[in-house]
Amino acid sequence: MVEYRRRIVDDLLDELLPEMAAVALEGAKGVGKTATATQRARTVYSLQRTHQREVLSAEPEMINDGPFPVFIDEWQLHPPLWDAVKTAVDDDPSGGRFLLAGSADLPPGTRIHSGAGRIDRFTLRPMTLMERNFETPTISIGKLLRGEPQQIRGTTQRTLRDYIDEIFRSGLPGIRDLSPKVRRHRIQTYVDRLAEKDIPAAGGRIREPETLKAWITAYGAATATDASYETILRAATPGQSEKPDKKTVMRYRDLLTRLFILDPVPAWMPSLAPLTTLIRSPKHHMVDPALPAHLAGIGPEGLLRGERNVLAPDGETWLGALFESLAVQSLRVYGEANQTHVRQLRTKGGRQEIDLILEDWERNTLAVEVKLAGAARNEHVKHLNWLQEKVSDGRRLTRMVVTSGEQAYTRADGVLVAPLALLGP
């Protein structure tokens, strides 16, 4: 039996589950929801098993029999169970009663209670670099946000090739430790199953799965960009006179978002520090950079040679986009462990762009630029310094450049510089 690797969400569950009657873990297939919930459950119902699904469909009250916590896996395969849990929590709101896991949101029009106030939701993403035991972190994102003292020090021996290896291995627990050949097969199967099985199971009608797979590939090629959906569609259908219409493309987007495969970073729109030229559109990312890396057909050596993704802006490499996505994947989890909103900032005309803005409930803010470089140069920090000049609403603002280098340090202008490997929650 494979040994369970403790996840960052486990710390949150240790702290919060005793006070929460029901917790739903959401996320793409393969991120580890079932393994995490099973660690705590005393009763497990897996709705992927036809018999268990039929039994609970006939007698949903069985979930009250315990022993608790009761774990209902892939609950979305029988949506009325969500309401059954909600009713059970209404009757007994004591903590630690139910765990639910789902790898797809419900189709529009499915009528269930929102669960607000009864069922607390957490998103589980692929493993962060810290969870992969890539390196021992020396810098806490939470302390940076709260302004708690910590030394911005530390070195890592991890190289650019190590980061590239992590991009291709993925953060999916059941895939990352396989041999490269088997891993490539599993990732391709993962994408094929999305188009041919998972989307139809989630209520989506796909007439031409190959067209959808081409669109997924093109979306992946837009990783870490704000390319328009029209641009993505053109990349997915080169030379085709008859292309899917906008309604179809938006349906692709919505279906893949419901399956947690698309994971775009929303725009930052601060209410108390209005910046009038901000762009509201999201920045494209997939749930794991291993997916676009595999679909692009550019291997590790091609990345090192600087081969480009056709949707990357001029002067930017495919490796740079994938490294940014790897950083975003980990930093989102570190930030959310500290109850932050994770956003990004771009102004009209692309004059200013900041890769990540982490903001907690007290408006403590961490602005992050991700750079494929060993150290931070002046051009890497100019947008961070611009933001410091513009934000004057009294918030604590910390500026940081995340690099692929070896050394953590603080620049003379106060900007922190940290290798991605040295960051943790």
Automatic annotation (TrEMBL):
Residues 196-372 form the DUF4143 domain. InterPro entries: AAA_14, DUF4143, P-loop_NTPase. Residues 22-131 form the AAA domain. Pfam families: AAA_14 (PF13173), DUF4143 (PF13635). This is ATPase AAA. It comes from Nesterenkonia cremea.
